[in-house]
Design a protein that fits this description.
By secondary structure, the protein is mostly helical. It contains 5 helices and no strands.
Length: 115
């Protein structure tokens, strides 16, 4: 919440590249990936709710990521993060394509997603 409050102090306030190759590389280095990705989903959700991150900018950043090669485990983590965000809002339909990041495989929880 303090991070969100700090961003609100900046003018103009819009983040457009929260999910980008650099942030993914940092997230991939986490010693606790589950907690890290949960926190990332929370931050992105709050940024969207506060209109600090336009939903179309998030969509564009994610679609840019899909054009690159990423390990399957990382794509699944991104997919779960986006699914968590999507279930809490419509976001102007900007996250309707989230299925491209993750499989709808019900057995997916059996996989070890540590990266």
């Amino acid at each position: 919440e303090q991070l969100i409050a700090a961003w609100k102090l900046l003018v103009p306030i819009q983040l457009v590249t929260i999910l980008c190759p650099a942030s993914l590389m940092l997230l991939a280095q986490s010693s606790n990936p589950d907690l890290t990705w949960d926190k990332m989903a929370f931050v992105i959700k709050r940024l969207l709710q506060e209109n600090l991150l336009p939903s179309l900018a998030l969509e564009d950043g994610c679609l840019q990521l899909l054009r690159q090669e990423w390990p399957e485990k990382l794509l699944k983590r991104i997919g779960r993060c986006l699914e968590e965000i999507k279930k809490d809002g419509d976001w102007d339909g900007a996250l309707d394509w989230v299925i491209f990041f993750s499989n709808s495989d019900p057995d997916m929880d059996d996989f070890d997603l540590d990266i």
